[in-house]
């Protein structure tokens, strides 16, 4: 049975890396001693070693070890043998590019479908959707495909922002961008605000955290979903 936490962000304002969600992760990863970290998104341009060190330090506070996938000679075996998996945020284009380059998308699917607990934050959450097409990131590389893992039947727009009525910024809002997407694409999109996450148990998807999420479907008005809502009922 699939067990996932699909989080909008790794860090909320005023707290440390993963700090806001560590109590949840302690229970989520309770059966695992070591977590396999996938640093391919290279947050802020960090090296794989630097990024893995950040994750290692955070998980040490709840008694978990972290090892980077890049430390293995065979990344496919690393995924299939992992007790638990965490894919961090950064640039979704580069993350997906490396997942295809190392041919581990099928292995991630196998592992998670077989019950390996999976945590994604930001880019690592974007890849849980049908495609990565609702990322906010710049296309710094060109992955072979936008198709991703499809663990949930919609796409994620992580770090979803509401319009600021006091702002003088004249650019498009997130809602505008998603509406543009739905001119050409049918896949629903969930705008996941900072500090919120999805808890996935098999086919059941539940919104957790302190904030509502905004669900967009082609040709329909957006719907606000309260925290603790079972999102899967909308699909």
UniProtKB/TrEMBL annotation:
Query: Where the protein is mainly located, per its record?
Result: cytoplasm
Which family would the database say this protein is a member of? Belongs to the peptidase S51 family.
In which compartments does the protein localize? Cytoplasm
Q: What is the protein name for this chain?
A: dipeptidase E
One Pfam family linked to the record: Peptidase_S51
| Catalytic reactions on record | Dipeptidase E catalyzes the hydrolysis of dipeptides Asp-|-Xaa. It does not act on peptides with N-terminal Glu, Asn or Gln, nor does it cleave isoaspartyl peptides
Which Gene Ontology molecular function entries are recorded, alphabetically?
Answer: dipeptidase activity; serine-type peptidase activity
Would the keyword Cytoplasm be found if you checked this record's keyword annotation? yes
The record, for PANTHER family, names: ALPHA-ASPARTYL DIPEPTIDASE (PTHR20842:SF0), PROTEASE S51 ALPHA-ASPARTYL DIPEPTIDASE (PTHR20842)
Query: Which key words tag this protein in UniProt?
Result: Cytoplasm, Dipeptidase, Hydrolase, Protease, Serine protease
Q: What is its EC number?
A: 3.4.13.21
One GO cellular-component annotation of the UniProt record comes to: cytoplasm
Query: Mind telling me which InterPro entries this protein's record contains?
Result: Class_I_gatase-like, Peptidase_S51
A Gene Ontology BP annotation from the UniProt entry:
proteolysis
């Amino acid at each position: 049975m699939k067990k996932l936490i699909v989080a909008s962000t790794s860090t909320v304002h005023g707290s440390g890396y993963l700090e806001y969600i560590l109590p949840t992760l302690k229970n989520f990863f309770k059966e695992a001693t070591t977590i396999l970290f996938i640093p391919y998104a290279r947050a802020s341009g960090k090296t794989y070693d630097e990024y893995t060190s950040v994750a290692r330090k955070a998980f040490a506070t709840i008694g978990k070890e972290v090892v980077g996938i890049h430390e293995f000679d065979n990344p496919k075996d690393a995924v299939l043998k992992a007790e638990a998996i965490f894919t961090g945020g950064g640039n979704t284009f580069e993350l997906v590019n490396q997942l295809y380059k190392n041919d581990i998308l099928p292995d991630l699917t196998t592992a998670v479908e077989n019950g390996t607990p999976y945590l994604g934050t930001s880019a690592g959450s974007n890849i849980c959707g049908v495609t990565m097409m609702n990322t906010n990131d710049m296309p710094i590389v060109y992955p072979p495909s936008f198709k991703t893992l499809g663990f949930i039947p919609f796409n994620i727009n992580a770090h979803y922002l509401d319009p600021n009525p006091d702002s003088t910024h004249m650019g498009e809002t997130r809602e505008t961008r998603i509406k543009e997407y739905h001119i050409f694409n049918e896949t629903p999109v969930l705008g996941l605000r900072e500090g919120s996450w999805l808890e996935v148990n098999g086919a059941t998807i539940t919104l957790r955290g302190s904030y509502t999420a905004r669900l967009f479907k082609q040709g329909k008005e957006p719907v606000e979903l309260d925290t603790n809502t079972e999102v899967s009922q909308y699909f």
